[in-house]
Structures are given as C-alpha cells and as structure tokens.
Amino acid sequence: MDIFLMITMIMVTGLIANVIGRLMTAIPLAFIEIAAGMLLSIIPPLAHFQMEPELFLLIIIAPLLFNDSQNTKLSELVKQTKSTFAVAVILAVMTIVIIGFVLNWQFSVFTLPLAIALSAIVTPTDAVAVKSVTISRQVPSNVMQTLEFESLFNDASGIVIFDIALTVLATNQFSFGAGLLNFGYVFFGGLLVGLIAGWLVLWLRFSLLSHNLGEATLLVPLSILTPFAVYLMAEHIGVSGILAVVATGMLHAYQQTRLRLTSTRLQVVNKEVWNILSDTLNGFVFVILGLLLPNVVISMTKSSPALIPLCLFIAILIYGMMLFVRFMFVRMNLSGHNWHGRESWLFSLGGVHGTMTLAMAFSLPLTLGKEAFPFRTEIIFIAAAVIVISLLVPTLAFPLVLPAKAVAFTPEQLKQTRASMINYALDRLSDEDYDSRIQTIVRDNLRSQNGFFTGEQKELLRLIEGMNEANADAIDAAVQTGILPPDANKITKRLLVKYKHGHLFHGLWALAQRTWFTKRQIKRIENIPDFAKRVAEIKAQHHELLDQVKAVLTDSTNTFLESQKTSENHEEIAMVHHIFIRRWSQFAQRTITDDMQTELNDAYVRVFQFEYQYLQDQLTSNKISQGLAKELSEQVSSSELVQFEAGLLDGEA
Fold it and tell me: Which residues does 232 contact at the CB level (< 8 Å), separation at least 6?
C-alpha cells in the first residue's frame, strides 16, 4: 500500500508539473518537475524515498529508450554510423579516462579506480534531458541528431567501464585485455541479443496479423512488454540490457513501413499509448530526481558538511572538463563532422546528463568488502550536482545563440480554424435533405469537436438566462393564442427548471415529481383493456406535442440570439445555440429506427467529407499552413474513429 501511495503521489505531482509547464513555457519543464519533486519530498511518506537502480533501469529507462529508438530515422543513423560510434564509444571512453586521471592526480582521496567509476557515472548523456532544454529552440538538425544517437548508445559505454572500475576496486586487479574483451562482449552482445529478440517479437506480430489476430488488445500490450522482456533477457545473459532494448527498438523502426498499413486502428492506438507512456515516464524521471536531491543534500550535511564546497567545486570542474573534451573532439574532426564554431559549442553544451547518471550513482554498493564504500554519499552528491549544472548551463546559453523554434500555427489559429471548419460542415449539412432529428443528433456531436463550453462565462450565463425567459414567454403566448394546448406549459417548465442556472434543488424536485406522476399514471391505466395500445397512443400524442413545443422554442431561441449578436460575442452565441440543441435532444430522446440509423450513418459520412473538403480548399488557397491542415485532418480522422467505435457508422447502433 505504501508503494502504491508513493507511485500515485509521484504521478499526480508529474501531472501538476505538466500543467504548470504549459502555463510557464519560458521555464524548461524539467526544472518545474525537479522543483515539484523537491516539494514532494516534504511529505512524510516520501521524505526518505530510496531508488532501486535496477528497478529504475527496467521500469523507466528501458521503455523510454525503446520508444526513442523505434521512432529513430534509421536512414539518418546509417549515414551517421561512424560518427555515432565515435561519439558514443570513443568520445565516452576518452572522457572517462581523461576525467578519471585528472581527478586522481588532483585529489588524492580518489584512487584511480574510484575516479574512473565517478567519471563513468557522469559521462552518459540523456536524450530526454537534451529535449527538455531544447524544446523551444531551433537546434541545427545535424547537431540534434548526433546528440540523440549519442545518448542512445553511450549509456552502455559508461555502464561497462563503471562495472570494470567496481571490479578493480573489489579485487585490486586489472587486466587491459580482459577489460577490453568484457567491453566487447557486453556492448556487441547486447546489440546481438536485441536484434534476435526483436526479430522474434516481429515474427510473432506478423504471425498474429496473418491469422487475423491483430487486434490492438493483443499487439499493443505485446509492444509495451517487449522492452521489459528484452532487458531482463539481456541482463540475465550478462550483456547490456540497455543496448539490447535499443537494438530491438531500431529493428521495429526498420519494419515500421511493413507494419504501418496492417491496421490503421492498431497503429493509431499503439502510437497514442506509447506517447502517453513516454510522457508519463519522462515526468517520473525528473520528479524522482527532485525527490532525491534533498535526501542527497541532507545525507551530505550529516556525514561530511565540510566537504560540500569541495564537492561542488569538483562537480563544476568535471562539467568544465567534459565541455572541453567534447569541444576538442569535434574541432579535431574526430566525430566525423566537419564542425567549426557554433556547431562545436552546441554539441558540447548539448551533452546533458540525467537518468542514467542518477541510476548509476545510486547503484554504488553500500560496502566494499567488509568496509563501507569510500565516499559513496559524496559521489552521489557530485553526480546530482553535475546533472543540475548540465541542465542549467544550456538553458541559459541556448536562448542567447539559438533562435526560437518556429511554429506552424498558434493555438488561437487552431481554435479559430477548427471552429470555422465545423461551422462550414454544419452549414452544408443544413442544405442536405435529412430528418430534423438526424440534423439535431449530428449537429450536437459535431460541435463537441470544438469542446462543450467555450466563450466568456458571464456572457454565456446572460445569454442562457435570456434564452430561458424568451422561451417561457413564447410558450405562454402560444398557449394564450391557442397555438399550443395548456400541457405545453408543463413541458416547458420541466425543461427550463432542469437547466435553470443555480437551481439544482428545483431541478431535482421536478424530477421527483415527474417520477411520482408517471408511476401514478401507470397504476391508473394498468387495468385498462389494451394497455399496450393505450401506452402507444399516449406516446404518439406526447411526441406530437413535443414537436409543436420544439418548433415554438426553436423559433424563439433563434430570434432572441439573433437580437443579441454583436461583433464580440459570436463564440458565445454559437455556444448557447449548441446548449439549446443539446438539452432539447436529451429532453425529447426518441428511439432510432433502422431506417433512421441508415440515414444517420450517411449524415455522419457527409459532415466528415465537408470538413475534409474545407481543409483542402483552405490549403489550396494558402489560407492555412500544411502543419495546421495536418493537425485538423488528424482530429477529423480521430472523430471518425470515435463514431466507428460508437457503432454509428458501421450499423451497430
């Protein structure tokens, strides 16, 4: 129960941080999530939160890397094979060795194996962290791709050297040949296991599809379980689980073109599920980092408070050395890119650290032999400081040298164009010869594409109250002139009381009265001969009366709203009209016959065609951008999918 509570609190914190991040776009989301995690650490159940490194790698890192790798552009990776190997292996090893020797030379407390272990911890870069600090900046595509490819593979380099350093610390023995052999086994063995496991998973997917078993309920869970199974299998054999997961994901990316058209619904569901899972886990990473930072500082304060300034200096020194090594590596053309000036600095600053550094730091053993592991708390503190520094420096530097990322459209443009698209489809629908009830149902659902309540609240409430009064006056006048029978007042009263703003009690009381009256009527006529026939006659009379009332109410509503139109309340007018249609359809629901269902299906097909036509016309005339048309087209496709799932377009009403 405690674990469930902690996970729930971390998830809720991540969601809150996401909301704040949407409102405060000037601050990278990673910093907001870290700050939220630090505030979360105040809560007693989480005050002493401890991270299990192996569980962290399995549950968070493995699926994140799998998703990143299955979305990788393999054509670009093939082009950059040499440069990727150079920055992910050669640069990583050089960085670890240089920083390790400098730390051992300058600080006698660090033996060479311990210094190498520390440098191996802080060397791996993090694709998630890189994206968090560049999300609003236009980074050159060649630099960004190199950073992403580096972060996919250099984790394994750091882990292997980290394990070798720990082995040397425990045994006081080191063999260069054995270390190189172990590195090759873990690195390339991980890739091989990932390719084999990935091929088996793809074979299983194609087999299920060929036997008409390709439902999303089977293949999406299979996709989600894949990184966990591959990671555990690779780690059990003794090779890199991280690289195995990356290799499997890339094999999925290679086969994506064959899988893409097997099932449109499957691809849509699979993509959306992975997007949600990836966003959730990314939030987990930085919330957990913020949650752990206070514990690290408190532990450091208790064990060796005098060393805090020295550890901060070491963290700054390590980050500075990593910048220098990365800069010189690309300037000397060792990365395979002929970069000079700005690209070199962007690549250097883009070496942001995060999840893997955190996981490796906490995986340090508590004891070494029979004694406590030397400087374990200090190393964790230094690693955490390096992460924060590597996030902070590019966050401050990138806005000075990089332009803001161009957007294809603004939220306001999306909102206005979507509203215009819906209104266009509704106008065209009104020209079609459909039953009024079909028109009402389709209009009601179509308007939900733009949300249910839009506009300024006070204006909405004023128009709703005014509409209610206009409706009541119209019914009174119709009854007095004999256009409607006196029963029309009862129907209108029930409708208006049910929706009158601030009168929930009256609405519930009216519902109770209606229920009581209905039961009395049923008891009274139960003994009448031809009971079923009598009920049918009452229903027919009631429906006829409803149609008469609706005609009067529709006319009064349109007249009132037309009289209230201004240049500033167009959105509120449309919303109130939608509310009237929606509440009337709920009040006077009828059974949809088979013939009406066929007509309803056809109406939905037509309105979606009208929406696509509108987007095509706007795009052809250059009134909207390609990006905006694509976004709205995807929304229309999703609406179609929802209608299919609801059984409205496939005859399953």
Answer: 58, 241
Place of tokens 């991980």: 190
What is the separation of C-alpha 395 from the centre of its chain, rounded to a whole number of angstroms? 23
**How high is the pLDDT of residue 653?**
39
Q: pLDDT at position 158, please?
A: 83
Higher pLDDT, 420 or 519: 420
Mean pLDDT of 251-272: 68
Handedness of CA 560, 565, 569, 573 (dihedral sign): positive
Tokens of 122: 């802080």
CA distance 578 to 558: 11
Q: Which of 150, 137, 72 is nearest to 330 (CA)?
A: 150
Q: Is the dihedral of CA 137, 143, 148, 154 positive or negative?
A: negative
Cα 192 from Cα 142, distance rounded (Å): 28
φ/ψ of residue 367, rounded to 5: -130, 155
The rounded distance, in Å, linking the Cα atoms of 453 and 118 is 55
Q: Which helix (H) or strand (E) holds 401?
A: helix 376-401
- Note the Cα 643 to chain centre separation in Å: 23
Residue 123's nearest CA partner among 321, 291, 306 is 321
Q: What is the DSSP letter of 86?
A: I
Average pLDDT over residues 491-495: 62
Write the pLDDT tens digit of every residue in 144-171.
888 888 888 887 788 888 888 888 887 7
Q: Residue 413's CB: how many other CB atoms inside 10 A?
A: 14
The residue length of the chain stands at: 653
- What is the spatial distance between Cα 635 and Cα 640, in angstroms, rounded to a whole number? 9
Q: Is 404 helix (H, G, I), strand (E, B) or coil?
A: strand
Report whether CATH 3.40.50.300 matches the domain 2-401: no
* Alpha helices, DSSP H, located in 448-593: 457-480, 487-499, 504-525, 531-564, 570-587
Read off the tokens for 6. 């902690």
What six digits make up the tokens of 393? 């420096």
Whether the Cβ atoms of residue 405 and residue 136 lie closer than 8 Å to each other = yes
Residue 88's contacts (CB-CB under 8 Å, 6 or more residues apart) are: 149, 150, 152, 153, 154, 157
Say what the alpha-carbon torsion angle 448, 453, 454, 456 is, to the nearest 10 degrees.
170
Quote the pTM value: 0.69
State the sign of the Cα–Cα–Cα–Cα dihedral 445, 450, 452, 457. negative
Instruction: Kindly report, residue by residue over 398-419, the tens digit of the pLDDT.
Output: 888 777 776 667 777 888 888 8
Instruction: Kindly state the percentage of the chain with pLDDT values over 90.
Output: 9
Q: Closest by alpha carbon to 195, among 243, 154, 151?
A: 243
**Position 26: which residue type?**
A
CA pair distance 349, 396, nearest whole angstrom: 11
pLDDT band of 491, cuts 50, 70, 90:
low
Q: What pLDDT, on the 0 to 100 scale, is given for residue 584?
A: 65
| Structure-token pair, residue 546 | 């409803």
C-alpha dist (Å) from residue 221 to 57, 194, 205, 227: 20, 19, 11, 11
CB 132 within 8 A of CB 28: yes
Beta carbons within 8 Å of 343's beta carbon, 6+ residues apart: 140, 142, 143, 330, 337
Residue 110 has, within 13 A of its CA and on its CB side, a CA count of: 24
Q: Where in the chain is the domain with CATH 1.20.1530.20?
A: 2-401
Q: Is 558 left (phi over 0), alpha (psi -120 to 50) or beta?
A: alpha
Confidence of residue 196 (pLDDT cuts 50, 70, 90): very high
What single letter denotes the amino acid at residue 636?
A: V
Nearest Cα neighbor of 168 from 367, 362, 314, 368 is 368
β-strand partners of 367: 372
